[in-house]
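Reviewers of the previous submission asked for a worked example of the structure-prediction workflow described in the proposal, so we include one complete record here. The input consisted solely of the amino acid sequence. No template or homolog information was supplied to the procedure at any stage.
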Amino acid sequence: MFRQSGLSAALLLAVVLGRSESLKEGECEVCVTFLGKFYQSLQELKVNLNSADIEKALLKSCSDAKGKENRFCYYIGATSDAATKIVNEVSKPLSHHVPVVKICEKLKKKDSQICELRYDKQLDLSSVDLKKQRVKDLKKILEEWGESCKGCVEKSDFIRKITELMPKYAPAAARTRTDL
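From that input alone, the workflow returned the following structure tokens.
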């Protein structure tokens, strides 16, 4: 009797733990998004899907990554300054066409920081009042565009630079803004 109840308790525990491994909605968003785009680009370029070729393409893709995607690449060891290297945990499953979500679940087990990465909220430049934003947020807008503001000291300098560059980087927002 005790043997059966112990066995059924162990089975129930295995089922409950097995379910908790799957990703929740919004979890690992950088991993899922980056690897999804990467896998899509491999298919579009018709890259030979073997582990070595995928690893080379991943290293190249990570060299161009910025922000949270660069941090993700650092965590999996696909950047030159990374301390660990678990790139093969991505390249091998991709070569076998394992879904990206399953790969991210495995990566989460290896390093939980990978799934803690979140994208920053994007500002709607067509409606946001730049005068009410912090200088830190204004600097972040310029950084996302790959621009800098040398000689900018005050908030108004950053706002002027953003409004000058807005037609180049956010043309739709520049057309809808009326305070220019």
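Residues 6-20 have pLDDT under 50 and may be disordered. We consider this example representative of the routine output the project will generate in years two and three.
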